[in-house]
């Protein structure tokens, strides 16, 4: 990490996309905690992310249309006339303002307050949303999913917040899978490769209640203003050494009050409908590419709905039993 | 009501994506999704602005083993629904 003019500068290689992050040191360390596995030596950047304290960013010109609902925050997309892909993603919250130009590969973030909640928003929600937009302009299409690896192939666990995907991923890790990520993964345009995003695992009290062994790795409480405990996955489970692999199956978890799990097969169109809301509706060309990648994914591998029960070992066994047999695996 | 001579095409800001036999439509402006089954997907595919509604009915009658009157009624009802949702619009 290099520091100059008060900013720390760190470079990351996200599956061939070089991202340079310049931020006040207290912000840089949080971002680094998320992107740790991608750290690389300083090199020319494809993407720059700049954090500043105070208001430096203006509202983009033109009329923006809302593309994301977030409590208290406006997230708007400003199309650039005459250009199918260029545009600006603008996030305006009382404590954070962000301007992202995904085609150009730039994200600028103003921190307008100095508290834990602001730091969390700026380094988690804002960074994730904008980084996903930048990366899908570069052929990496995001899926809101945890991911685990077995026999060199990737099982994706798509789901919204609260669906139980982190808990299921940790249960699968306890059953012998390697943890690749707990919230986001990427697929390429043909969906033949999953590109992992081994972020910190955001642990909730609910997860701890179901997996009491986690508490040994957690401080007493999350940082002030943070809703969850961020924990490096390496502390929780065996993690995948390789960050890429072909997809093998999609398992969509849903938390129920059951004890025993129930697994059922999903048709490709049902799976596509479940995953499509992940697609942020910004540039039509990019949205079409994203949808096409997700469609390719659901056509390529089987999809299942899993009503998870409180017996997590049984849930893991149900997933393992449903996986298609690999040919050529010794 | 869709007339048999009407020619329809997808509205510009509607994306379509096939998943196996079904098609998922995304209205970029409304942010809403629709799913069409196998027959609906075929109707969508045929509405490319070059065929009349009557032509679309004829193709589907030819390709599917169902009473002609039932196919005609179902296809025209689907076209009404798709135009009502502004997923299909009149072709020039």
Short summary of the structure?
The complex is a heterodimer of chains A (about 325) and B (about 90). Chain A is about 25% helix and about 35% strand.
In words, what does this structure look like?
The complex is a heterodimer of chains A (330) and B (92). Chain A is an alpha+beta fold. Helices cover 25% and strands 33% of the residues of chain A. Chain A has eight helices and 21 strands. Chain A has helices spanning 25-35, 116-123, 125-136, 165-174, 205-210, 268-275, 284-300, 312-322; strands spanning 2-4, 7-14, 17-23, 47-53, 65-70, 73-79, 87-92, 96-101, 106-111, 141-143, 145-150, 153-158, 178-181, 185-187, 194-196, 201-203, 229-231, 244-245, 247-255, 262-266, 303-308. In chain A, the strands form four sheets. Chain A has a nine-stranded mixed β-sheet with strand order 1-2-3-4-9-8-7-6-5, covered by helices on one side. A six-stranded mixed β-sheet of chain A has the order 13-11-12-19-21-20, with helices on both faces. In chain A, helix 6 (268-275) packs antiparallel against helix 7. The longest helix of chain A has 17 residues, at 284-300. The N and C termini of chain A lie far apart (42 Å). With 92 residues, chain B is α+β, with helices and mostly antiparallel strands. Chain B has helices at 38-46, 53-63, 68-84, and strands at 8-10, 14-19, 22-27, 32-36, 88-90. In chain B, the strands form two sheets. In chain B, strands 2-3-4 form a three-stranded antiparallel β-sheet. In chain B, a hairpin with a 2-residue loop joins strand 2 and strand 3 (22-27). In chain B, helix 2 crosses helix 3 (68-84). The longest helix of chain B is centred in the last third of the chain and has 17 residues, at 68-84. Chain B starts with 7 loop residues before the first strand and ends with a strand. The mean pLDDT of chain B is 92. At the A-B interface, helix 6 and helix 7 of A face strand 2 and strand 3 of B.
